[in-house]
């Protein structure tokens, strides 16, 4: 996943933009904005910059205001900002740093210093991004972990509520997995969980659908904009996909292979009922899963 870091240069004077761009373009993808409003637009785009060099004195919205707005918006607040400015008093500098900028470079700037400071803050930003990504990935299966699922559930719940849509979940548990470990060993059990995770991931068809490892040998599907019958059909397809993998399990009581049980819950999220929390959907899916187990495993309870 090699991605070239990008730097947004914001300045109302074209000559300043040009100097900075020349100094940085061999290492970074450069984007430019000649006014505050344009800077906000680039920062809020689908591909936000990894760092912003921000002039302060500009007609219209000044750099302080741009910085304030970026820091107040959770989608842009993590982008490091370096002020590059002719406002050189210590009070101006303190004010800029108080607003959340990571650094402050006085004009006229010395290009090697700009380059060095940009490099430091880009490296830090990329490391932070990587850590955030790793914190949300399960270390055994490399699919999203429970922390990531909890975040997605809240996000999708809010979206469904705003748009008056359905939201569905399927809780998944591997059948007789204790016997698998006892028979084949814990290492083989780990391999099996990786294969189950891959099969689940591969069997999803809509881009919005996702699977996470909920814990142990439990997984969960999050199915946005999906009603009950759609969710049941997806769960059944997922069950069949894993069955078709034919992973041997000699000590399963339900089949000659590894199987899963699934419990489905779906709700049309009503904007007028904010007290209906996503936890209730999870609980319903969990109860359905329990029914699937009681009814004999290797099945979907809708
Ligand atoms: P059921 O059909 O009722 O779900 O039976 P089960 O044996 O799967 O249920 P139980 O909850 O008793 O056992 C779950 C097993 O999953 C026990 C635990 O050791 C195993 N397990 C949980 N996490 C991991 C893991 O990361 N790796 C391995 N190898 N085993 C795990
Ligand atoms: Mg200016
Ligand atoms: Mg379990
Ligand atoms: Mg189990």
UniProtKB/TrEMBL annotation:
GO terms for cellular component: plasma membrane. Residues 165-302 form the GGDEF domain. Residues 6-122 form the Response regulatory domain. It comes from the Bacteria. Its cofactor is Mg(2+). One of its GO terms (biological process) is phosphorelay signal transduction system. Its EC number is 2.7.7.65. It catalyses: 2 GTP = 3',3'-c-di-GMP + 2 diphosphate. The modification 4-aspartylphosphate is found at residue 55. One of its GO terms (molecular function) is diguanylate cyclase activity. Keywords: Phosphoprotein. InterPro entries: CheY-like_superfamily, Diguanylate_Cyclase, GGDEF_dom, Nucleotide_cyclase, Rev_trsase/Diguanyl_cyclase, Sig_transdc_resp-reg_receiver. PANTHER family: DIGUANYLATE CYCLASE DGCM-RELATED (PTHR45138:SF9), REGULATORY COMPONENTS OF SENSORY TRANSDUCTION SYSTEM (PTHR45138). This is diguanylate cyclase.
């Amino acid at each position: 996943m090699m991605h070239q870091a990008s730097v947004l240069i914001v300045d109302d004077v074209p000559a300043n933009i040009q100097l900075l761009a020349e100094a940085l373009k061999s290492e970074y993808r450069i984007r430019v904005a000649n006014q505050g409003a344009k800077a906000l637009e680039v920062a809020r785009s689908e591909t936000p910059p990894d760092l912003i060099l921000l002039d302060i004195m500009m007609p219209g919205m000044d750099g302080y205001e741009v910085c304030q707005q970026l820091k107040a918006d959770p989608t842009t607040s993590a982008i490091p900002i370096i002020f590059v400015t002719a406002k050189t008093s210590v009070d101006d500098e303190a004010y800029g740093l108080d607003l959340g900028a990571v650094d402050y470079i006085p004009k006229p700037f010395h290009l090697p210093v700009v380059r060095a400071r940009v490099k430091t803050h880009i490296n830090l930003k990329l490391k932070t991004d990587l850590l955030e990504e790793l914190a949300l990935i399960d270390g055994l299966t490399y699919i999203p972990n429970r922390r990531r699922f909890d975040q997605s559930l809240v996000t999708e719940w809010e979206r469904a509520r705003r748009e008056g849509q359905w939201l569905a979940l399927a809780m998944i548990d591997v059948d007789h997995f204790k016997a698998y470990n006892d028979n084949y060993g814990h290492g083989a059990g780990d391999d099996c969980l990786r294969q189950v995770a891959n099969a689940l991931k591969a069997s999803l068809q809509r881009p919005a659908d996702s699977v996470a490892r909920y814990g142990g040998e439990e997984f969960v599907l999050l199915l946005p904009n999906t009603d009950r019958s759609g969710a049941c059909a997806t769960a059944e397809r997922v069950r069949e996909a894993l069955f078709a993998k034919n992973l041997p399990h000699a000590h399963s009581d339900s089949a000659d292979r590894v199987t899963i049980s699934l419990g489905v819950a779906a709700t049309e999220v009503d904007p007028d009922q904010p007290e209906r929390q996503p936890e209730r959907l999870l609980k319903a899916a969990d109860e359905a899963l329990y029914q699937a187990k009681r009814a004999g495993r290797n099945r979907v309870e809708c």
